[in-house]
Design goal:
Oligomer: single chain
Helix content: 10-25%
Distance between the termini: 6 Å
Radius of gyration: 16 Å
Structural class: alpha+beta
Strand content: 25-35%
Number of strands: 7
Number of helices: 3
Order of helices and strands: EHHEEEEEEH
Largest sheet: 5 strands, antiparallel
Strand order of the largest sheet: 1-4-5-6-3
């Protein structure tokens, strides 16, 4: 069983470019919405990470655009956690148009941990080990 979450996003006028498709950078915001929802659902909220003394900035991001979305499209943004070795958070994303299930884009991100002082953390922080034991190991 995979850990995943889906959020619905309705494309607003302010999110499209002059050719009436969603500006490519806005998809990154939709992915962020999905990461926040994932965190709330599985108790891995950004504030919990920060309160544990760490940040989890994006280290790597890959996006493959399949087709555009436009004003008033409702998009389903699905995020799926990819278990991995080491001190990192890996996610896959899929954005589909709700009305016809058309694939809009697929993507992946890797987040690495840093201390709140900005030092790279090469080993798994304790809070992340506990999270994995309590969430990942139970599925």
């Amino acid at each position: 069983m995979a850990l995943s979450e889906t959020v619905r996003v309705k494309v607003r006028f302010s999110e499209v470019d002059p050719i009436k498709v969603v500006w490519h950078g806005n998809y990154v915001k939709y992915m962020e919405d999905a990461r926040e929802a994932f965190g709330r659902k599985y108790h891995l909220e950004y504030m919990h990470i920060c309160e544990s003394g760490y940040y989890a900035p994006i280290y790597d991001m890959h996006i493959r655009y399949a087709q555009g979305a436009t004003i008033d499209d409702v998009l389903l943004v699905t995020i799926t956690y990819k278990p991995s070795q080491g001190a990192k958070l890996c996610f896959d994303y899929e954005i589909r148009r709700e009305s016809d299930d058309a694939l809009i884009l697929s993507a992946s991100t890797i987040q690495l941990f840093t201390t709140t002082e900005g030092e790279f953390e090469p080993s798994e922080p304790d809070f992340y080990k506990v999270w994995k034991e309590s969430v990942i190991d139970k599925i």
